[in-house]
Amino acid sequence: MRTLRSLRIALALPLALAACSEDPARSTGGGTDTSSDTQADTTLVDTGADSAVDSGSADTSSEDTALQDTAPDGSADTSSEDTAPDGSADADTSTEDTSPPSTAIVISELMKDPCAVSDGVGEWFEVTNVSAAPYDLRGVVITDDGSDRHTIAGADPIIVAPGATFLLAASGDPAVNGGITPDYVYSGLLLANGDDAIILTATDGSLLDAVRYTRAGFPNTACASLSVADASAGSIANDDGAGWCDGSALYNLRDAGTPGATNSA
Question: Count of domains in the chain?
Fold first, then answer.
């Protein structure tokens, strides 16, 4: 009996040992799998997170850049519009800034301080048509920088031929105006002996010519007209007082100038 019991114990012991050795193995195996899964999961999560962050950053910057490039009000687009070789707005603005307005009528001489007669009847000024076409003065407005104003009016066209001068005066009577015969008589205008202006505005509201003479910057001699040296130089050139001089030819016993004729200066 003892021998049989011993044999049973001997046979059961390896099976028990084998069973114990399997449990740790299973635990170890499960641990290894769990560890591997956890490690793999962790690695995947880390890698995924890093990739996601990196990719997100890259995508975000690319997306931002793309948005900036394609934004309708973006600086890049504005810059492109400004530098476009065929941009009509840029070309038009540049042309307007650098091109002076052209005109046919130029103020070429004026008498502001006659001596033979009083200023109120002896003042006059003339204009010259420097273009190649006739010009109708009807409707042209004469003003200064103050309250003086007169609109040239007539039943018929008031034509200034190409290259011709046209005399406008405060009085049409040669017996009282110093002996001149004007082409047109105005009212409501006085030419100051100091600083003043003659401004001519066309019927469409555009500026024909303006002369703003000053005591210091223009000739200022009593009994002599102010005469532009070269009317053909245009309405911009006659803004400079250096281009004007005193009239020298007498048209009565005391006053010098060439009213209605080619300037002698």
Answer: 2
Q: How confident is the model at residue 190 (pLDDT cuts 50, 70, 90)?
A: very high
Are residues 54 and 170 part of one domain? no
Question: Is this model's pTM higher than 0.70 or not?
Answer: no
Give the three-state DSSP class for 29. helix
Find the mean pLDDT for residues 45-68.
40
Cα distances (angstroms) measured from residue 71 to each of 25, 68, 76, 90, 171: 65, 5, 8, 21, 68
Both 76 and 167 in one domain: the answer is no
Tokens linked to 209: 């010519």
Please tell me the distance from the alpha carbon of residue 185 to that of residue 173, in angstroms, as a whole number.
10
Report which DSSP code applies to 112: S
Closest CA to 209 of 95, 76, 100, 47: 100
> Which two tokens mark 77?
């687009």
Query: Residue 106, Cβ neighbours under 10 Å: how many?
Result: 26
List, in sequence order, the alpha helices (H) in the chain. Answer: 2-70, 75-82, 88-98, 119-122
Burial class (CB in 10 A: 0-12, 13-18, 19+), 117: buried
